Amino acid sequence: MDDTQHLLESASRGDALAIDELIARYLPGLRAFIRLRAGALLRGKESSSDLAQSACREVLEHLDSFRYQSELGFKQWLFATALRKIQDRRDFYLAAKRDAGREERAGGGPSDDGDARLLECYRSFSSPSHHAIAREELARIECAFEELPEDYREVIVLARVVGLPHADIAAQMGRNEGAVRVLLSRALASLARLTREPGGAGAT
After folding, report:
1. 119-135: per-residue pLDDT in tens?
2. Cα-based angle 42, 203, 176 (whole degrees, multiple of 5)
3. How many Å apart are CA 62 and CA 47, to the nearest integer?
4. Domain residues for 36?
């Protein structure tokens, strides 16, 4: 039994320490996933931390129904739960046809410590400056990320945030492994270029 499985089994029995450890271990990466997949519209309306914690709560409430096979399988379940929440909230705002420019931004933004943890996740696919304010770096990376084509965004998130191997990404995206490697390389190069350019530029 590996460490993650032990924590999950303890958490399913209501062990508060195991629950806290699971949240501390996966919340930063989950928050990064949510911010990148939510897009600017949802980021401007809801706290990514709240969405991440909501996903964690839902997963913890249904641990007894999860059949553990590997840590990667657990992460996929966790991120899939978060993606459903993102889609539900985005559909809500789109259906309501609310004017984002006339609504107050969601309060309860991340703390400086939360920003720093998020930047650590982003360093898996970008190179944030160590001299800039964390929140400014987050905005710069996220704006550049938004300019990438959808398949570039997806492959970066799956490979560098979720941590899927190329074979699993290939199956999920309907490509072969070689194509995934090329796609990821091009996506990372485009992101690096966009984060270096003042104001960003369209991805190629």
Report:
1. 788 888 887 555 456 77
2. 90
3. 23
4. 1-109
